[in-house]
Amino acid sequence: METNILVAHATDSERATFYRKTYTHLALGVLAFIIIESLLLKIDPLVEFMLSMTQGYLWLVLLGGFMGITWVAQKMAYKSVSPSQQYLGFGLYILAQALLFVPLIYVAIYYSGGNMTLINQAAILTGGLFLGLTAVVFLTKTDFSFLRSILTMGFFVAMGLIVAGMIFGFDLGLWFSGAMILLASGSILYSTYNIKNEYGTEQYVPAALSLFASLMLLFWYILRLLMSRN
After folding, report:
1. What pTM did the predictor assign?
2. Between 67 and 57, residue with greater pLDDT
């Protein structure tokens, strides 16, 4: 059994290997998401079903299902010492994200006149912001652990507003997307800080999942913000 020591206590060579594996798995996760999303968008009955799930209270049902799958996937990735279980959890989470994105991507393509303009713009902005935030963590010695309580409170408030919006029928608007972009940015800072200080050298799959979750949240709300302006 390989020794799973904290990355913060590992040698330079071990840390470099962990970071390489983590970000390689993150990149592969993004690639898998793109491939799966492309395939799902070609299944018309599925697209119609997912679009119908965005109406009224069904959206809350969809979000509840997504959070349930997320809990299972993260438990498999974070709690298991079996690499196969970790990969299965990561794959399940990527599939759940791809399903959740089907309505948003479909509408974004419609807003762009049938092309990928808005999606490409959102992807570029997301990638640039992600790289910038990652650099802040790795190039400074700032302790971002304080973000945990802020993020926890922020996500609870966000979920409350989403539920209230569904119940009372009001649009959260541009300000909410902007606030969620800030929250997602904080999540990237915190997740990146964690992989440097809280993960073991053999936990590159759950580390990649953590970064992937924050990255997809950022992409979701940047895309929504761009769509709101068109």
Report:
1. 0.91
2. 67
